[in-house]
Design brief:
The complex is a heterotrimer of chains A (278), B (343) and C (264). Chain B is an alpha/beta fold and 343 residues long. Helices cover 37% and strands 27% of the residues of chain B. About 2% of the residues of chain B have low confidence. Chain C is globular and about 60 Å long. The two termini of chain C are 27 Å apart. Classes of the chains: A mainly alpha (278), B alpha/beta (343), C mainly alpha (264). Chains in contact: A-B, A-C, B-C.
């Protein structure tokens, strides 16, 4: 009975590589998928620039500033999609009963779903987001990058990806409870990243509150961007009257707490699934 | 090895609504109903047994297996697999059992079978040397070599099933749970799977619990049959015993020596004879179910009248030239049982 | 004709089976409608008029295109391609009905369902959320809009059908065709009104068939073309519908010859 214990991180890498290799067997299709997401996002971004061709600002935000929000949101979401697609694509597996396979393996259920579908092709969205950030720093005039800017940006993108990832986990938990439920979750994942692509202060109060306290989209890019741009936020939008810098620095904590909640909800949903079946 | 005691499991089923605004109405409460999949299932299986679980679709076979493998938690009742409660010690049990669902695959669709098996090895933490040994055994036993390097999506159903079985054997399971392992396979592929299972059971002592609709599987593999119907075990024993318990309805086929006098009177109307039948034989304890010329079929229940008594009473009333006794085959017995469900 | 009406009716019924997905889609469309209308309203804070659109016109455009997208099915429609890939196409071709007509009838049924259960509900949501500008000359605009809608469905169908035919030749048709559809959302005036583009690009885009799929019905609804302009606009749209259906028919013939040669 002395079985060597499985080391999950290396198993994750192994499974992720297997996924990518499987997809690479259809190389053209794989590259086209990357291109497809890139082009789709580029069109949306260009549409935004077309609008900015007509007006100088949106609610006091310039094209470059909105591009920064846009790029950060897209980069975070791309990372979250790459790692969280196992949860996103769970609904059909629950429907077909494939999810039961997960329950007869000697590994944590969360880990198995997490490791089941690493999607390298999401790099298309990431690149588009990176280009939007690059645009924001070079148009209309180049803005010098300081080391601190890079740090804030990197932290914010990773933090944002954790927040989106946790949303995917919640979506997966929802799929375990409600057959046909996944479509509704798309509103919060894809809708969330679109919402975060625009300045949060444009939106109405209930949405702003929901995006701060329920699905913490504001911590994905809005607060960090305020800090990066040195912008002053309108009254009442910053929780507890904290400064954007403080909020940007506390974003990782918020993201981890949110992820923690998502994992607890996930575990309870798995238990409920085992209790009720399909 | 496996003990189940009064397992009970019911599901809430959402009744599908149709119609234009069904989606809106589906959100309203009160659209679900309770279905008792497993009412009370008890049995125990010793090490080294090979047991088949039979029963019509929806009888509760799969649900029972899901509870024994830790996928589902029962509403009430207890069960232990390898001495552990499967839904409480899911991962410890999972390490020591192998599970194959015939309608699904646990292999990686886009990867060669060999890669899938290697990934499974890492998921179960099987040491390299033992993996090498087990893989060698599987390659021989299941004849994997011809397609070991082919992507799973290109495999035939039979090859894929052999691959899935290999994936379930990589970690030396003590029990194999197989949910319809031969479904959709051709005769050759079925035979191969059966041979492999027999070998595993006999030479390695692996306990096997399988569900199937194929009685040939049962006849070849299992000494013991659990028949589940309406969420209960209705039979636990050999396949032959199943016939004696449920197959009491027999048929006596008699050939009359000559048409009886009453028939002769109607003989001129041959069409009517064949359509409406000649006057039936009247024998206590049996009813005529069919007639064809001089041949008559008499159905009787063996629990009410013995075959010899019946033959004697037929012979005393009618002149016979020949007779045969037809016992139901096992397929008919089970088909009859399944059919009675629809009531 | 009877058989095509029956096909359309079946397609409508099939949509009903996806009730929950439709409800979810309605929810998603509404949410996106809201997200997109907010920056648009913000844009009008600094300028009362952008290329002839005032604030209310832009808001109405926004909700209108969110509803139209479901009718013209630009998010992906691969039914034809799937039958080509699975080989079922051989059965469809063996039927004693017009192949293009067969699919057109089904798409009309689907579009009719979307009109009732997606288009109208989303417009109602738009009205409740941000208020819409309804036609000032309803007796002219509504019939004109309805005509334009039908022509938009025909044009969109022909274009999607052509993209689906790609499955005859390419294994990766879906990725390529997806790119085609994504480009269509941009070129058709779904992401931003075509009027907002720089003049030269705008006139090119307005001349392309893609404008007939989204921008033209929106323009008609917003009463941005009147009298002779409206007639010309609808005539142009009719022209595109005919041309595109013609190309789709020719494409089907061409592909079919290939199937019969290869034996499916």
């Amino acid at each position: 009975m002395s079985k060597p214990d499985v080391f999950l991180p290396s198993l994750y890498i192994r499974l992720a590589i297997a996924r990518v290799r499987g997809r690479m067997r259809y190389r053209v299709g794989f590259l086209l998928m990357i291109l497809g997401v890139f082009v789709a996002n580029t069109f949306e971004f260009v549409a935004l620039l077309v609008l900015f061709g007509q007006v100088r600002e949106l609610g006091g935000w310039s094209a470059g500033e909105v591009a920064l929000l846009w790029g950060m949101s897209q980069m975070s979401f791309a990372i979250a999609e790459a790692f969280g697609h196992g949860f996103e694509g769970l609904a059909p597996q629950v429907r077909s009963g494939e999810f039961d396979q997960v329950l007869v393996r000697p590994l944590p259920v969360f880990f198995q779903v997490f490791a089941s579908d690493f999607q390298a092709q999401r790099i298309g969205r990431f690149l588009q987001g990176a280009m939007a950030v690059w645009y924001s720093r070079s148009s209309p005039a180049p803005i010098p990058w300081h080391a601190s800017d890079w740090t804030i940006l990197t932290f914010a993108v990773i933090t944002g990806s954790v927040i989106f990832f946790a949303t995917f986990v919640l979506g997966g938990a929802w799929a375990l409870r409600v057959v046909d439920g996944q479509e509704f979750m798309n509103t919060f994942t894809y809708g969330g990243t679109t919402l975060a692509s625009y300045p949060l202060d444009l939106f109405s109060d209930p949405i702003r509150r929901a995006a701060t306290w329920i699905l913490p989209l504001a911590f994905v890019n809005y607060f960090p961007a305020l800090a990066l741009l040195g912008r002053v936020a309108p009254d009442g939008i910053l929780p507890f009257g904290l400064t954007p810098i403080t909020l940007a620095l506390s974003a990782p904590i918020v993201a981890l707490v949110y992820l923690g909640i998502a994992v607890v909800v996930w575990d309870r949903s798995v238990m409920r699934y085992q209790g009720t079946g399909t | 090895m496996i003990v189940a005691e009064a397992l009970k499991k019911s599901f809430r089923v959402t009744t599908r609504r149709t119609g234009g605004f069904s989606a809106f109405r589906a959100l309203l409460p009160g659209s679900t109903s309770q279905v008792e999949a497993v009412r009370s299932v008890s049995f125990s299986i010793a090490a080294g047994e090979m047991v088949a679980v039979l029963g019509p679709n929806g009888a509760g076979k799969s649900t029972t297996i899901k509870m024994l493998t830790g996928i589902l938690v029962p509403d009430s009742g207890t069960a232990t697999t390898l001495g552990l409660v499967p839904w409480q010690s899911r991962r410890s049990v999972a390490k020591r059992i192998g599970v194959v669902f015939g309608q699904r695959t646990q292999l990686w669709w886009d990867l060669p079978l060999s890669d899938s098996l290697d990934l499974v090895r890492h998921m179960y933490g099987v040491a390299p040397q033992r993996f090498a040994e087990n893989l060698a055994t599987c390659r021989e036993l299941l004849d994997l070599d011809p397609f070991l390097d082919r992507p799973v999506r290109q495999l035939s159903l039979g090859q894929r099933m052999r691959g899935d079985l290999a994936a379930a054997l990589i970690h030396d399971p003590e029990i194999l749970f197989l949910d319809e392992p031969t479904i959709g396979l051709d005769l050759v592929a079925k035979a191969r799977i059966r041979d492999a299972l027999t070998h595993l059971n006999q030479s390695r002592g692996v306990t096997v619990l399988l569900t199937t609709h194929d009685l040939a599987d049962v006849a070849r593999l299992c000494q013991r049959v659990l028949l589940i119907d309406h969420g209960r075990v209705v039979h636990d024993g050999g396949l032959e015993a199943l016939r004696t318990q449920f197959g009491s309805g027999c048929t006596l086929v008699v050939d009359l020596a000559e048409p009886s006098a009453s028939d002769k009177a109607h003989r001129h109307d041959a069409h009517e004879t064949s359509e409406r039948g000649v006057s039936p034989l009247v024998v206590p304890g049996a009813t005529e179910t069919r007639s064809e010329g001089n041949r008559r079929w008499l159905a009787f229940d063996r629990r009410e009248v013995s075959a010899s008594d019946l033959i004697a009473s037929v012979a005393s009333r009618y002149p016979l030239s020949d007779l045969t006794l037809e016992e139901p085959d096992i397929e008919t017995v089970i088909a009859g049982l399944y059919a009675s469900r629809t009531e | 004709m009877r058989v095509y009406a029956e096909l359309a009716r079946r397609a409508w019924q099939r949509q009903r089976a996806y009730g929950n997905a439709n409800l979810a889609g309605l929810f998603t469309n509404s949410f996106f409608g809201y997200i997109r209308v907010v920056p648009l309203i913000a844009a009008f804070a600094s300028r009362p008029d952008i290329s002839g659109y005032d604030r209310d016109a832009a808001i109405t455009w926004n909700w209108l295109v969110q509803s139209l997208i479901t009718i013209v099915a630009l998010w992906g429609w691969w039914e034809v391609a799937l039958t080509i890939r699975s080989g079922e196409v051989a059965i469809d071709l063996a039927r004693p009905i017009h192949y293009l007509g067969y699919w057109l009838a089904r798409d009309v049924g689907r579009a009719a369902y979307s009109t009732v259960y997606r288009f109208i509900p989303i417009l109602i949501v738009g009205q409740l959320v941000s208020g819409l500008r309804w036609p000032e000359a309803p007796w002219l605009t509504w019939p004109a809009f309805l005509c334009s809608l039908v022509l938009a469905v025909l044009t969109s169908f022909a274009w999607r059908f052509l993209l689906n035919l790609g499955a005859f030749w390419l294994t990766d048709y879906r990725a390529i065709a997806s790119l085609g559809l994504v480009a269509t959302t941009f070129l058709s005036g779904f992401l931003v009104p075509l009027a907002f583009f720089p003049p030269v690009i705008r006139s090119i885009l307005e001349a392309l068939p893609f404008a007939a799929i989204i921008q033209t019905p929106a323009t008609v609804f917003l009463e941005r073309a009147e009298g002779m302009d409206l007639t010309l606009l609808l005539a142009q749209q009719l022209g595109w519908a005919i041309v595109m259906l013609g190309v789709a028919h020719w494409g089907a013939q061409f592909a079919m010859r290939r199937v019969t040669v290869q034996g499916g």
